[in-house]
Amino acid sequence: MNNKHEVVKLIDTTLCTACRGCQVACKQWNEMPGLRTKQWGSYQNPPDLQWNTWTLIRFQEHVNEKKEFNWLFRKDGCMHCTDAACVKVCPSGALHHTEFGTVGLNSSRCIGCKECVSACPFEVPRYSRETDKIYKCDLCYSRLRSDESPACVKSCLTGALSIGSKEQMLKKAYARAKKVGGDANVYGDKFVGGTHVLYVLQEKASVYDSLPRNPSVPFSLFVWKDMLKPLALLAAGGVLAGSFLHYILHGPKLPDEPGPNEPGKDEKGGE
């Protein structure tokens, strides 16, 4: 894998057997601890993404229009959006785009404000009370920089996970969806500027749990980040420039002299 281009990870749900090798590999590579869970009536464990679980295989029972039952398995995690709401809203720069087009996270800069939690249309970032920080998948940024595949891709035995250039993965995804036929489709390239994680879905996107049909950056965030905030910064810059110009022309501000009817310090009993 050449590390000089924009990369995309492809998740082919039609090949996933829910072995959860990717889930374990992600946790091991990132040295995330395991937390005790309780049985809640599903093979899916834990029940949802957590601060210490960045990759989760979702198990879903599905009955199609022909009354046929089958399992739907979907690897869930950060979609690494091009127009990433989490990056837009992050005040500290902890969330940022990398040279691969993915969304990285610098935990040392995270202030635990949780703005990204409410902004993300995929509900991915998770907050830890213990550390007061946000956690999520960074697509194994350190491995990408070393020209290695992410741990999850490396562990996949069936070929359900692959990674490569954006052009290559888009071509592969659409070819696979066409080959599978039926309701198979490609998910991820038509919204939020295009994601750097693509799905080949076996069923329509609306069938899958916890998968938004049309994810987007909240309009209020667009107005603030792309319109109002730049204007506010310009206004603040104008105030600073005006203050500096006043200082250059008139010097520092001095205390007011006492007026003709105001007693001086001597009359007050001062010096």
Structure description:
- It contains 7 helices and 10 strands.
- It has 2 domains: 7-217, Alpha-Beta Plaits; 218-255.
- A hairpin with a 4-residue loop joins strand 6 and strand 7.
- Helices cover 28% and strands 17% of the residues.
- The protein starts with 6 loop residues before the first strand and ends in a 21-residue tail after the last helix.
- It has a 4-stranded mixed β-sheet. A two-stranded antiparallel ribbon has the order 2-3. The chain has a two-stranded antiparallel ribbon with strand order 4-5.
- It has 271 residues and is an alpha+beta fold.
- The radius of gyration is 26 Å and the shape is globular.
- The model is unreliable at 267-271 (pLDDT under 50).
Residues in helices, as a percent range? 25-40%
Strand order within the widest beta sheet: 8-1-10-9
Order of helices and strands: EHEEHEEHEEHHEHEEH
Calculate the mean pLDDT score and round it.
Answer: 88
Please report the number of helical segments. 7
Low-confidence regions: 267-271
CATH fold description of the largest domain: Alpha-Beta Plaits
- The count of strands amounts to 10
Largest sheet: 4 strands, mixed
Q: Between the first and last Cα atoms, what is the distance in angstroms?
A: 80 Å
Spatial extent as radius of gyration = 26 Å
Strand content: 15-25%
Net shape: globular
The total tally of domains equals 2
CATH level 1 name of the largest domain: Alpha Beta
- Helical/strand content category: alpha+beta
**CATH architectural arrangement of the largest domain:** 2-Layer Sandwich
